[in-house]
Amino acid sequence: MIMRGPITPWEYGAKLGHPVSTPYDYLIGCDNILAKIHTRNPSACEKVGGVIIMHIDDLRRFAMLWLHKSEEVRADKDHYATNITGDIYASGWISEMYGYSFAAAELNLRHIIKSDILIYPGYVPLPGVNYKVFHYGLRFGVGDWSFDKADWRNADIVNTCWAKFPEPPDPSAITKGDQNARERDLLSIECGKALNKALYLHHKRRNCPRLSTTIGSISKKIEEVLTSNKSERVTQRSSTTTIGRNVEHMDVTRQQAVERATDTVSRVHGSKRLARSSKMWIFAVWAISVVVFLLVISMFFSDRRRSASRSRASRSQKAHNLTMKQTV
């Protein structure tokens, strides 16, 4: 999520027993067997999440129950199906969201549900609303450009210096006559630019080296990988019915993008390893040369010392023989 501004409890009316949250209508488990299994008060289950503004006294008695309910739902793999949870991936990813709703129902917390706090990029905003939070949980796009965080699950963008996501279009390119579509697209562009700005500041704090031609081309290559699938892209719809129809096609597109992006990033690391390996070989050759030089010098001086010793011994022997002759 991206915070676009401060969220204050008194601004939205949160109070004891009445947390403030945002609507999450796809939590259909509140209306079916899932709620009946995991809470004793299923009628109090509310489809909320994303942003929670809760009184501290409620939070103290709520926190551990939230954890336990999340673990309980995560372990209930028999009810992972999309038609039970609303999770299009049927993988238990939203277990903590159900854990929250079930724990709140157990304590009979009644939410003040606000639609003017959070928005998914790609959704049409309410007129005049200044949303405080972007939740980029679904694919969204403008024209030929789109973004889905799941495409980058296996690409190490954070630890690859100056890597970034494909740049969204410039806001000046949005010329739609439909005001709703225009506002929607401007928010999508703002979210995409905010993500890349955050990555830039992160790489800068890591003291990444200056952008080189190699790294620049790698970054462009990554961008090309995901923008090349123009005809394959599926714009994420707000309707859960449309989401369900597009899941299979989106997964194919995502897998192709991930494989290419991961291969590109792997080549970055491979080039770095090759550079390090070359440096090690140079150092090894230099070290061996020094050792050989020292051995040659050592042998030379050892030979000189042996020659000098033999010369002194020879002179001593001659002097001794001369003395013996004189004595005789």
TrEMBL record:
PROSITE patterns for this protein = FHA_DOMAIN (PS50006)
The protein depicted here goes by the name FHA domain-containing protein
> Which residue intervals define the domain FHA in the entry?
241-269
Q: Which GO terms describe its molecular function?
A: glycosyltransferase activity
Which intervals of the chain are annotated as region Disordered?
308-328
Q: Which domain of life is it from?
A: Eukaryota
Origin species: Aegilops tauschii subsp. strangulata
> How the protein sits in the membrane?
Single-pass membrane protein
UniProt feature, compositional bias: Polar residues: 319-328
The transmembrane residues are 280-302
- Cellular compartments annotated: Membrane
The family database entries (InterPro entries) matched by this protein are listed as:
FHA_dom (IPR000253), HPAT-like (IPR056508), HPAT/SRGT1-like (IPR044845)
Where does the UniProt entry say this protein principally localizes?
A: membrane
Q: What ranges does the record list as Basic residues composition bias?
A: 308-318
Lineage of this protein's species? Answer: Eukaryota, Viridiplantae, Streptophyta, Embryophyta, Tracheophyta
